[in-house]
From TrEMBL:
Highest taxon listed in the record's lineage: Bacteria
Residues that span the membrane, as ranges: none
Residues given in the record as S-adenosyl-L-methionine binding sites: L73, G105, L124, S125, P126, L127, T128, F129
Keywords: Cytoplasm, Methyltransferase, rRNA processing, S-adenosyl-L-methionine, Transferase
EC number in record: 2.1.1.177
Function: Specifically methylates the pseudouridine at position 1915 (m3Psi1915) in 23S rRNA.
Gene Ontology terms, MF aspect: rRNA (pseudouridine-N3-)-methyltransferase activity
Catalytic activity: pseudouridine(1915) in 23S rRNA + S-adenosyl-L-methionine = N(3)-methylpseudouridine(1915) in 23S rRNA + S-adenosyl-L-homocysteine + H(+)
Family the UniProt entry places it in: Belongs to the RNA methyltransferase RlmH family.
Subunit structure comment from the entry: Homodimer.
Annotated localization: Cytoplasm
Organism phylogeny: Bacteria, Pseudomonadati, Bacteroidota, Chitinophagia, Chitinophagales
Protein name: Ribosomal RNA large subunit methyltransferase H
Amino acid sequence: MKIQLWSIGKEHDPYIREGIAVFQKRLQHYVDFEVKLIPTVKQAASLSVPELKKQEAKIIMDLLQPTDFLLALDEKGKMMTTVQFADFLQQRNNAGTRQLIILIGGAFGIDQSLLQRAQLQMSLSPLTFPHQLVRLIFTEQLYRAYTVLNREKYHHQ
Ligand SMILES: C[S@@+](CC[C@H](N)C(=O)[O-])C[C@H]1O[C@@H](n2cnc3c(N)ncnc32)[C@H](O)[C@@H]1O
């Protein structure tokens, strides 16, 4: 199974890029993992936030393959432990999912149409984090989950 992390917004800040690179390198041992940026639609004066989010959603819908499993990160989504998340990854792999897309919204969040397309909405906490930090936190969690699946000494319960 291939995993892609899609983030709406601008380039990672340097400290985020550095952190992601650390876990991305470690993840190479376990899974085919890529990080992709979806540039934010420029906010023209005439465009409201809901309209802007709709435009972003259309771009993302066009990039998605019908067979992609979409996991949208949203603070109101389902919360799970690291071990439950590891089990979820194992289940997707066993189910033959070819591509798992993880979507992180931009400053205004993820459009409703994409939340509806998502097979899973996942929350990392009831707190709202800045989207740049979510990129790093999620990449670490993905690495953590794979160390659980591979019985490595990284995650201690
Ligand atoms: C700054 S937040 C957007 C908040 C916005 N109020 C909203 O309507 O979603 C940007 C993105 O970071 C991610 N995010 C932030 N906090 C999160 C959390 N606790 N759990 C999961 N994802 C989160 C989500 O993908 C969200 O769309």
